[in-house]
Amino acid sequence: MAEMDARIVRYGDLRPCKTAFIDAHTPGSDQKENFTIIGGGVSESADQHVHIVDTPGFNIGAAGQPPKCRNSLHSHRTAEVFFALKGRWRFFWGRWGTAGEVVLEEGDIINIPTGIFRGFENVGTDYGMIMAILGGDDAGGGVIWAPQVIQDAAGHGLVLGQNGKLYDSKKGQSLPAGVAPMPLLTEAELAAFPEPTTAEVVPHHVARYWDMMALSDRQPARVIGPDAILRDRPGFDVELLSRQSIPATPYSLDAHEVLMPMRGHWRLTWDAGAGTEGTTALNPGDTCAIPPGLSHALAPAMTGEASLYRVRATTDKAGPTWRG
Known about the structure:
The protein is mainly beta. It has helices spanning 2-5, 147-154, 187-191, 198-205, 209-215; strands spanning 8-9, 33-38, 50-52, 58-65, 70-75, 80-86, 89-93, 100-104, 109-112, 118-122, 128-135, 144-145, 158-160, 166-168, 206-207, 221-225, 230-231, 236-242, 257-263, 266-271, 277-282, 287-290, 295-300, 307-313. This is Cupin.
């Protein structure tokens, strides 16, 4: 039981970091809370707490934000997938965030194309939470910021070094000797970033919760994968399970599996042999890392709506996802 306890991160135990990224002091972005659940993610701050260090081929994180708080424009080299756990979220993209946008409701998922600038903001009325899946064990080697984000941050005391670490002049910090500031992207480099429209992105990169629930009436809804609603090979597969589509018998896998409840309360049981069986409840916002070879079973713990995202590691290269 103790070994599995170490593999479950409870929503109520999440430890936020408000200084994770370069826009931590920028008005409009300074109330963000960043969470690294599995793997180090792409946080630029030494203050970031990592709940589970070992990665299964991908990273799991989360962002919590009050209404009208936004995450500044940035890009990644590998996959970045979000589902809205709580609240309404507007995702926008392009060099200035004006190329396209989409609003996600609770349960909706977006597989944001790599190689484009993207940002997001809480457009709901209460504190919101989005859960994130980042491709690769090292989450792609960090964040690529739009130049104006770095410039704005400098005016509020934060400088990003070429070593990928933040330095805060408000705390008396400065760049160490031999460490240069992160250079701004040149106009030639910026020209290489695509500017896809909403019509180009949404049909291939966004899946709606109730559509997925309808597809999960007899078997898990294949959400991200080569034969899924969102066809891609980002280094992991994503499925949505409902009470109608849970496996009828215990099962085990050769690959890592992460369970992320969306709605309802779930009962997880496992049997590792030699008297090491156990059971626990999983609730919305919890994250559970199932190791390869562990026999386990799932069942809704009570009546009512129940849904759960299941992420499985694959041997595919972790990105890119935007094909133009």
